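$ fold --in a.seq
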Amino acid sequence: MKTIRIGTRGSKLALVQTEMVRTALSKLLPAVQTEVCIIKTKGDILLDAPLDAIGGKGVFVKDIERQLLDGTIDIAIHSLKDMQAIIPEGLIISAYLKRENPQDMIFTGGTHTLDSLPSGSSVGTSSMRRRCQIRSLRPDLKIVDIRGNVPTRLNKIGKDVDAVILAAAGVIRLGLPQGTPLAIETMIPSPGQGIIAVQSRADDHEINALIEGLDHEPTRICAEAERAFLAALGQDCNLPAGAYATIDERDIFITGMLGSTDETRMEKMRMKGRDPSVGRRLAQALMTSIHGEPR
């Protein structure tokens, strides 16, 4: 009987997402067994350091990818928004599970929204993307850098900060009380937000054939457009950037935001196209608007 070794972080959310993949696999392949291998990443070890100071996007992924490359595990489970635009040679994203709610949510411990928070209130987030959009919307708010898993950040409300902003998908998957959703147009999500990605070795044809049934094609198309946007920026998490794509029967629609490195300027745009390369074109247009010329 085939056993698939699954690599994942040890956070509660990562384990919940891994269990979602295991459940889907058991329905798809009842005869296949799975074994979960918990891997501690740099992002899990350096919990007190600002995310952009310890490598930004990829700090929750690279250690798992190394074990995938050396054959210790067969597949890896990631939150797609944590993955770098360019993944190591020899690895592929072999499946995208159907997307959960892509929005951000604000939690205040009461009934306040981002609009109604009193001037001077503190908002906790470690995301450059969120900081830039908050400063554009509410320059009178104080932004506090916080790290930690979802429950840890929620526990800071009323103690260290007046509010926190989190991805809705993680809160929903953990079964926690939900906050106030922020409209996509107000707070454009991180590329890939709400999507669970399954990563594997490109040359492991047996494993790839087994898990291909997990892939949700509409989610894949949107994810590829958002990742094309990210790849075109060339710096992953070193710039405040967000993108969200949807599709209809003919077109891909993608909304993006890009901020300056000092987070004092921001532009938002929307484009449509017939293939995921529309994400690259959107990123180039935003870079031209922010910097004066495409990079």
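$ fold --in b.seq
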Amino acid sequence: MTCRVSPLAYVHPGAELAEDVEVGPFCYIGPNVRIGPGTRLHNNVTLLENVILGSDNEVFPGTVIGGPPQDISYRGGETWVVIGDYNIIRECVTINRGTEKEEGVTRIGDHNYLMACCHVAHDCCLGNHIIMTNGVLLGGHVHVEDYAVISGGVGVHHFARVGKYSFVGGLSAVRHDVPPFMLVEGHPARPRCVNTVALKRHNFPQETIECLAEAHKLLYRTHVGLANAREILRAKGRLIPEVQYLLDFVEYQQHGRHGRGREAIRRAA
């Protein structure tokens, strides 16, 4: 099967396209771009440079991937965007290359859905099965774990971390790390309850949901403190792996500044 490239598209001689890639009119594919099999670029998609785009992705008009990082300390080093497989990237999404402060890579995993006008800044790292609704803005160095859902118009502070199976309510200001399995919302966003809908949808046992609900109560309502919460949950036999992951996440969060564990990395850079 041959590559289908519109005669109205530009493909740099240094780009590598798999045989069955589809490139629509007025697309621009720059140097050091590699596109895997089954990927479709609709019209007016721009892949500037140093982009690896895996297989079976679909990228919609107006998207720009591989632009230089919007970081005033960047001095033109060779950095990358690496995107996995089976992602849907809707209209006018922007994904910037990394800086040399971490790995030099902005990374997106597999089976993610980035809706229109989202921005993924330099050095972000997204896992798998993530949904970012229209207009979500990720600051630099943000990490988003698997199965997180971020609703429309949310801004995430740089160096924040969004935990797995979490849900961020629309128009929230995420200034702190978002704990896994929790629903957060507000200005600033705060944990309100366990993300029960997602956990049930992904077949978590009722016992697991109840254990997480008790952990939420201890951490965010009665405020007994992390160490006390851990001992109470252990004594009740509720220190299951999901609860342990939540408590470890909160402990890491406290190592940083302003409720962001990854701020420690920023200070060390």
